């Protein structure tokens, strides 16, 4: 297992369509530019899309690791910059309902790469399935992506409430995505904390916003990260700013600062589910 601290961040978003995978990929790229060794785990285990988003062909997926056919290191594919990706399987419904043993096997696989990464970004599935809850609960940081639409706020609140009430997660970081102005981002966060402050005992922190930018759409069409394809775009600049903030987050002390914490908690969460 890793002998040095690894920052484990679960990127969640309640509903689909908020740009969560895009945020994960570009945040990873920007963190890599800062010299961090970053691995993305596509944890939408049955409907993985990170490889599609980046035009990567994956010969092996997380399913092969679960079957004991190969190691996690053998499954990893190079992404943009120096980011490495653990791809998920697309269209394998059973993978969205892993047993406790499968969860344990999956995470024990990380012992193989523990000394070779600084940040593990987990791109969770949309919704509030047991798998999403398990990954979010096991991470040290939960990053919630929201957009300025009522369903996004409602679903983000539902996810925060469930993680807080049933799994004891206390701290949540928030990114406002596809925002017209920085002021709109702050206003969106204010809407969210209006409900969380009223009904929950949680610590909410606003990380920042990513502007609505046509460069993102063009980058997606090219199957590239906007940070790489259009490095001077407004969105790319925003992602670099967000990465600097994320990079400054204090690493939890041992054992929370090690992958062991992630392993133990993911197994416990699997048993809980």
Automatic annotation (TrEMBL):
One of its GO terms (biological process) is negative regulation of cell division. This is Flagellar number regulator. It holds the Pfam family ParA. One of its GO terms (molecular function) is ATP hydrolysis activity. Keywords: ATP-binding, Cell projection, Cilium, Flagellum, Nucleotide-binding. One of its GO terms (cellular component) is cytoplasmic side of plasma membrane. The gene is fleN. The keyword ATP-binding applies. It comes from Oleispira antarctica RB-8.
């Amino acid at each position: 297992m890793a002998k040095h601290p690894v920052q484990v961040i679960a990127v969640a978003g309640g509903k689909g369509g908020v740009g969560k995978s895009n945020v994960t990929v570009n945040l990873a790229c920007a963190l890599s530019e800062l010299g961090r060794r970053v691995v993305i785990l596509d944890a939408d285990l049955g409907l993985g899309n990170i490889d599609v988003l980046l035009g990567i062909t994956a010969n092996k997926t997380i399913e092969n690791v679960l079957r004991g056919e190969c190691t996690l290191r053998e499954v990893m594919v190079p992404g943009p910059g120096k980011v490495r990706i653990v791809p998920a399987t697309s269209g394998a419904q059973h993978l969205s309902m892993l047993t406790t043993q499968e969860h344990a096997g999956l995470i024990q696989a990380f012992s193989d790469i523990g000394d070779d990464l600084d940040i593990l970004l987990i791109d969770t599935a949309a919704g509030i399935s047991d798998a999403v809850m398990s990954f979010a609960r096991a991470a040290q940081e939960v990053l919630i992506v929201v957009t300025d639409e009522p369903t996004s706020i409602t679903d983000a609140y539902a996810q925060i409430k469930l993680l807080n009430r049933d799994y004891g997660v206390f701290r949540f970081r928030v990114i406002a995505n596809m925002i017209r102005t920085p002021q709109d981002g702050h206003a969106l966060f204010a809407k969210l904390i209006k409900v969380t402050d009223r009904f929950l005992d949680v610590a909410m922190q606003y990380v920042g916003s990513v502007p609505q930018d046509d460069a993102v759409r063009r980058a997606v069409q090219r199957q590239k990260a906007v940070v790489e394809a259009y490095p001077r775009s407004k969105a790319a600049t925003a992602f670099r700013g967000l990465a600097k903030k994320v990079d400054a987050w204090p690493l939890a002390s041992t054992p929370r600062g090690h992958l062991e914490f992630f392993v133990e908690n993911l197994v416990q969460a699997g048993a809980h589910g």
